[in-house]
Amino acid sequence: MKENSLLLIPKYEDFIQYMIEIIIKLPRTEKFNIGNEFKISMYETLENILYLEKIDKYQKINYLNKIDAKINLQRILLRIMLKNKWIDEKKFKIAITKIYEIGKILGGLIKIYGKNN
Length: 117
Hints:
CATH superfamily: 23S rRNA-intervening sequence
Order of helices and strands: HHHHH
CATH architecture: Up-down Bundle
Structural class: mainly alpha
CATH topology: de novo design (two linked rop proteins)
Distance between the termini: 15 Å
Radius of gyration: 15 Å
Number of helices: 5
Number of domains: 1
CATH class: Mainly Alpha
């Protein structure tokens, strides 16, 4: 259980690094709108992932649900970026694949801690 939440940290760091490179290349107006929202969401998600190691097991499901909701928001923002052609299909697929991997780990943690609550 613990190693799954620890595995989330480098996976999510990799996702953040990839997305920052994309956000920097967004059109100027969107860089400060959707780009800023995306960055705030990513940093809040990372903060919640880091809390997983510090809180007791009965609180973990709440943080896992917060992380899950933020990741869903990021998926939606990515689809908006694609629909508006601010990112291309290749970058979208790479980002969605990274989120999918994070989501699989998260889903496993939610199952584990959901049963324990």
